[in-house]
Amino acid sequence: MMKHFTITKRQEEHIAILEINGELDAHTAFQLEQQFKTLIETEAYHIIVNCSNLEYIASAGLGVFMAYIEDIRNLGGDIKLSNMTDGVYHVFDLLGFPSLYDIHRDESEALNSFNTQK
Predict the structure, then answer these.
(1) What is the rounded CA–CA span in Å between residue 40 and residue 45?
(2) Three-state SS at 58
(3) What is the mean pLDDT of residues 74-97?
């Protein structure tokens, strides 16, 4: 059975916003990896990942975030996360992600945090 997972990309000024929907696991993680690769290739280093419709995340999905955060930061950018459900936040929190990532309640807060970094 194919898992439901989609990524919608939008642009807000100089910031790329990825809305991830569905289940991010070993079968779907490559889609997020491809998005990060494309953003790096196009020099889009300011990224917000809106998790409002993320229903589930497995270790493979978390691994994609870990694989790209250092590269993006070394290029002068950042990956900020927003709109997590309590269940998804709990998984990130258990693994110590709040100390590694900038996690915001909502997308506008994440946008503002980029705009104040200019």
Answers:
(1) 6
(2) coil
(3) 95
